[in-house]
Structures are given as C-alpha cells and as structure tokens.
Write a structure and sequence with these properties.
about 750 residues, mainly alpha, 11 strands
Length: about 750
C-alpha cells in the first residue's frame, strides 16, 4: 500500500483479462481476487494505506462517497450490501478507481444498489452472473421509485449500461446479452417549474440584507466571522463552497488598464476546470467587502497557519503546549504525564490509567482507519494491557485499599504518542487541504485562507472536548456552512440568522452562485463569458433564473421585431379585420415610412408589394417577413392545417424516397425543415406566458425566385446561399478563459 505522499507511477497495475475456458462463476471469482490484489497497490496520493477490503465504507481512505449500503438504507435503519454481491461491487469500484483512475464513484454505486435489489426480486439471489435484461429493467424500476427528483434515474440507468458492458467484456455473465436503458431524460422544465426553481434556488432579499448587516457589525465569535466572510467571497465571484478549501491567504490580484483603472481579481481554483484561474470581483462595490473579509479571516486564522507550518516542518516532534511534560521523545511517560501531554483532564478521584484508556486509546480502536505505524503502536498497547483487576496496595495505618497496581507490558513515550495523535487529529491529506487530483495544484494548510485548529469553532464544552486543537481543519467546511446557514437537520440548534435575531431565514451556499449567474445574465453578459467567469467547462444555462418578463423585455430591446407596446391594439385590429400598418407590428427604421401591410392566411406580411412582387412566390413558411400574431385563433387553426398538409406531403415524399424516386430525398429535406418551423411557430403561439398580441417573426431560409434563376443559369454556386447564412463559430470556453487575464489589463 502506498502512502498519500508517494509519487511512484501506477503503470505496474495490470488489467484483469478473462480466460476463455472458465465459466462465469470462475471468471467472477478471478475478477474479485484480482481486485483484492490490486487494492493494496493503491494510487499515489489518492488511496490511503489504511484501506481494507473488509471495510463497509471506503470514504475516508481515498474512495470519496463510497459506502456499501443497500438501496433504501437510512441513518435510522442502516442496511448494507450482502455477499456475494458486495464482493462484486467492491471489485467494480477498484477497477474504476484504482485501475481506470476515475474519480466519480457515486453513480456506479447507486446503479449497483438498484441492481442488487432487482437481482433479489427476480432470482432470489445476489449472484451477479445471473444478470439479464429483465433484471436490468427491474433495476430501472427501482431507480424510478427511489430517485424521484430530476434526471437521476436516467443518469443511473446509463451508468448501469456501462456496468453491463464491463461485465460482458470481462465475461462475468452466464448468458451474454445486449441491453439499453428504457428510461428517457426528462423534458425541459415548464415555465411553472422554472418559477418554482427560481424561488428555491435563489437567495431571498431578506437573507442578503441579513448577511450584510451581520458582516458589518462588530462580530465577536470566530464562527460568525468565518461564515459571513465565506458568504462575502461567494457573493463576490460565482464559486462553489467546496472551492474555499483551496483559497490562499494571498489570493488578491490587481490589474490596471491603459487609463489607470484598477480591478480586483481573486486567484481561485475552479473545480470543474481543475485549474487555478483569475476571477474578477463582480462589481467595484464588492472590492472593499472582499478586503474586509480577508482582514477579518486573517485575524482568526494566522495562528493556525503557523501551527500547520510547524506540524509539517517537524513531523517527528510532539506538538508543544504549556502542559507538555519536560521529557525527551523516547523517555518513558507515566499515565499522568501522558494525559497531560494529550491535554486530557484528570480529576483527583479518577485514575489516569483508566482516563487514558477511555478517552484516547478507546477512540483509536478502529485500526482500519490508521496507518501501519499507528496500528503497530496501538497493537503494542492493547496486547500489553493488563486486563486483570490489579494488585491491591494497602498502607499500614490506613484503612482500605489505597490504589491498584497493574503490570502493563508497554512503554509510553512522546514519540509514540505523536504518531497516534497525528493519526487521530490530522486530516488524511495533510499537509494539503484537499485530496489529490490529476494535474491539480494543491494548497497546503500553512497557506490556506480558512485554516483553523480543530475544535476552534466548536460551540459548547462537549464538542470542544472531543476535538482538541492538536489538528487543523478548513473553517469553511461545506457541512459547517450548511448547518450554520440552514440547519434543517437539527432545528434545536440555532443557525447564524437565528443567533442574531433574524428568524425563519435559511439559505444554501450554492444559491449565491445561482444569484451571481442570474445577475450577470441581467447585466447582458453572454453565456460563454458567464461560464468562463464561473469556472465551468460546459454551458450553465440552468443557473439563469431570469423571469419570463425580463427575458421578453431583453429580447424586445435587442430585437425590435417583437412589438409588445401596443400588443392588445394589434390583436383587436387582427380579430376585427381592420387595416394593419407597418408601425403596428414593428419599430420603424430611420427614414422608413409607415404603410398598410398585407395579411395572409397564417399571419401578417411586411413585404412592400408596391415596389416589387413577392420574391418567395407564396412560400410564406420560408420567408422572414412573415409574422404570426399571438391570440389570433383563426390563423392558428390555419397554421395547424398547414402543418397537417406538410405531414401528408412528407409521408408521400418518404414513400417515394424508399422506392428510389429521383429527387425525393431533396423533397424530404425541405419538407422536414418546413414541418419543424411550422411546429415551432405553433408551440410558441400556444405558450401561455407569451402576451396576446405579440408578433412572432418567422426565420428566412435565404432562397428567392431570383436566386433560383441565377443558380439555374450557373451564375452562382448552390452552396453560396447556405454559407452566407452560417454564422461564425463561437470561441471555445478555453479561448475565452485565456482572454480573462487580459481583461482590464
């Protein structure tokens, strides 16, 4: 097993290769044995040496979010996977994490939980070699019942497809089969669902105001400083709460442009991009807020950073404190001195030996979480512990037993206690704040902005006695932030708002990211720039919670073809067959004269027939001068009849194409485009959120009778029209990210 600081290559791990002469049961047994032999080899800086195959949870050993619980398991009623399925599940995760170096394990574990339940339902056993398509379908049913929100069932079923493919490749199935998930991704959210999401995912104004007031008050609790300062940083740049662990004390960067204007940037690790980027503070007004947050945090974290540096620089020395006995590292310690070194209080009526065993040795009785060195020392103590009742010591002239003496066969020293103490209190990834990830530049506790001593933010003597200040931790831990800002799990404990008199307020840290993304949309930034600022690698439109009215107003501002100011008057004219003018449906350009426009059977046409004949020759669905008025039910019916006629012609064209009729393929392409456009117009006009009287403009395909004639005479290339309509490709997110360093520079 490799230590977390080991940097050796892992190319020595050989893939499991099945043998053709073995049956599925033998292949499965060989696969499990391969995984058991591979797990101890581990991954440098990823899998800790404390991991054991028999453990029911590998979460603390480098397999994040990996606990082998069964489907439906809860904290109140825990259930674990059962043999032999659990052996298969562990082997699969070893293959994915140790051999394939994949980080994400939770989807695979969730898919296997559903697979185990389906196996029991249909086969009465947990033998994975008996997996069939029917078992996989039943697993999908379990996914639908167990995960009811979002697209989780669909995603887990796609993961199950990968598991089945791996089982087929490794010949772990009695009956070979191909299977694809019957589940489909959920449709796009309705307008009502978007409204609900907006209310749930955006922080309320009351929450923002309360955080601002608490932050600007004279805070006396270190916990208040940490929570409010972390919120200030999350409201200054769109980020995730987990990324706070990698923020350095020296994270500010200032840049000036040619005119001398200075902007503040934060040096920030973007989790999704797996690299450090410079994030601009969203507005100049937030710059003094960031500076105040950093100044407050520095006051409560400076000592912890210095202590973390000492721990890293002196790995073999016991941490110094006021009550530490004046003994050498290898001199024997009494139990009283050992308790003093460990800062364990011993009352006069208590036995130091029993206190040492109860409060220190007792908490280390789970060797699966310890390193080999700590296991050896703990084994020495446990094996040498005198389990007898001890020898009674009496003194002449004094009644009763004065004390008991025991024959413990081990020696306590500061060097040994140092190994156990660091194993107990220091994080597994120390001196780094986060686990290893390929290509990631990690931050050490000695440099991290949110470094505090363990127990420094604990409230109450009970919590403080459990976590003493021998170790270090990240103050802005996601669990702590969630509890202090929401605390849904334990209503009996006051959160930050209740502590300061703001009752019934709750917020999720990710709501700040949604808030900033929405505000950037409102400010007119492109989705590409917002994604770059947010450190995303894919489009994050789900973070945009603008209202329908805001989006419609922005479209109307940048696209004057949508006329909304006199929409009700326009609809009245349409319904009563009154003449429509050009100014009723669009903003007039400079020098453009108003005139009466033509109405077709499906909308209005703004072509000037007085100056030239129709260039489309009646092909209205291919023309960009066609506008459909929302609320005109008669023309909506005509549009639906047009759609039905296109469908009929498309069916005939498809039949002709199947018979090999010349030119039928081209007709199919054109009719499919028309049908798509017609259905899009109908769907838009039936949208209940669209204001009655609004004009929805059609898109032009670029073809006219004149261009047709020019092409037929071979004076123009047929591809010229399509190429002239194609927009230039947008730059990639990486290109935009590269430009961020030049902003205001």
């Amino acid at each position: 097993m490799t230590k977390s600081s080991d940097s050796k290559s892992t190319h020595h791990i050989v893939d499991f290769k099945p043998k053709s002469h073995r049956d599925a049961e033998a292949q499965l047994e060989a696969f499990v044995q391969w995984a058991k032999q591979t797990l101890p080899k581990g991954i440098p800086d990823r899998v800790h040496e404390s991991i054991l195959w028999e453990d029911l949870s590998w979460h603390k050993h480098g397999f994040t979010s990996c606990s082998f619980t069964a489907l439906g398991s809860t904290i109140a009623a825990p259930r674990t996977m059962q043999p032999p399925f659990i052996e298969f599940a562990k082997a699969i995760l070893v293959y994915r994490r140790v051999y394939s170096h994949m980080k994400s394990l939770q989807p695979w574990l969730s898919a296997m939980k559903a697979l185990e339940a389906a196996l029991v339902d249909l086969t009465g056993s947990r033998d994975v070699t008996r997996v069939t398509a029917a078992v996989c379908n039943r697993a999908c049913e379990h996914m639908n019942r167990h995960w009811t929100k979002g697209a989780a069932p669909y995603r887990h079923s796609k993961t199950l497809m990968q598991i089945v493919a791996l089982m087929r490749a490794k010949k772990l199935l009695r009956t070979d089969f191909r299977w694809s998930s019957p589940l489909t991704d959920k449709k796009r959210r309705t307008l009502e669902q978007q409204k609900v999401d907006r209310q749930q995912k955006l922080p309320s104004r009351e929450v923002i105001y309360a955080l601002g007031e608490i932050f600007n008050n004279e805070m006396t609790r270190a916990l208040d400083i940490v929570v409010t300062s972390a919120c200030a940083l999350l409201l200054s740049a769109p980020s995730r709460v987990g990324e706070l662990a990698d923020v350095e004390l020296d994270c500010l960067v200032f840049k000036e442009n040619a005119s001398g204007h200075r902007r503040m940037f934060l040096r920030w690790y973007a989790e999704k991009k797996n690299q450090v980027i410079l994030k601009p503070v969203v507005s100049p007004e937030m710059e003094p807020v960031v500076e105040r947050a950093l100044a407050l945090l520095k006051l409560v974290t400076d000592e912890a950073r210095a202590y973390a540096a000492w721990l890293e620089d002196h790995p073999d020395e016991f941490p110094r404190h006021k009550g530490l006995p004046s003994k050498g590292p290898d001199e024997p310690l009494t139990y009283t001195e050992a308790c003093a070194a460990l800062q364990i209080k011993v009352r006069e009526t208590s036995s130091p030996r029993s206190i040492f065993k109860s409060y220190f040795v007792g908490s280390l009785k789970r060797p699966e979480t310890l390193s080999p060195a700590a296991r050896r020392i703990l084994a020495e103590i446990l094996e040498g512990w005198d389990t007898s009742r001890g020898r009674q010591i009496r003194f002449k002239g004094k009644p009763g037993v004065q004390r008991f003496e025991f024959d413990d066969r081990f020696v306590l020293t500061l060097r040994k206690l140092n190994v156990l103490l660091r194993e107990k209190y220091l994080p597994k990834d120390f001196p780094y704040t986060t686990p290893y990830t390929e290509g990631k530049a990690r931050v050490k506790y000695r440099d991290a902005l949110f470094t505090v001593r363990t127990g420094a933010l604990a409230e109450g003597s009970g919590a403080a006695s459990v976590k003493r200040g021998f170790g270090v931790e990240i103050a802005a831990d996601p669990n702590r932030m969630s509890a202090r800002l929401g605390n849904w799990k334990n209503p009996a404990v006051k959160n930050l708002f209740e502590y300061h008199g703001y009752h019934s307020l709750r917020v999720n840290t990710h709501a700040f990211r949604h808030e900033l993304n929405t505000e950037m949309h409102r400010a007119g930034l492109s989705q590409l720039l917002i994604d770059a600022f947010s450190g995303r690698t894919t489009m994050g439109s789900v973070y945009n919670h603008e209202t329908i009215e805001e989006r419609a107003q922005r479209v109307a501002t940048y696209h004057p073809k949508i006329k909304s100011s006199n929409a009700s008057q326009t609809l009245d004219k349409v319904k009563t067959n009154q003449p429509l003018s050009l100014g009723d449906v669009k903003d007039l350009l400079e020098g453009e004269q108003d005139r009466i426009i033509h109405q077709t059977h499906i909308g209005v046409c703004v072509h000037d027939f007085a100056s030239e004949p129709c260039p489309k020759m009646g092909a209205c669905l291919d023309c960009g001068r066609l506008g459909c008025v929302k609320g005109d039910d008669v023309k909506l019916v005509n549009l639906k009849e047009e759609r039905d006629d296109i469908k009929l012609r498309l069916d005939k064209a498809l039949g002709a194409m199947s018979r090999g009729v010349c030119g039928a393929c081209e007709w199919v392409k054109r009719l499919e485009k028309k049908l798509y456009k017609c259905e899009a117009l109908i769907e838009t006009l039936e949208n209940p959120e669209l204001e009655n009287g609004a004009v929805v403009w059609n898109a032009d395909n670029g073809w006219t009778l004149t261009k047709n004639a020019v092409i037929m005479s071979r004076q123009m290339d047929v591809n010229f029209i399509d190429e002239s309509r194609t927009q230039d490709a947008l730059p990639s997110l990486d290109d935009v990210s590269a430009l961020l360093n030049e902003i205001e520079g």
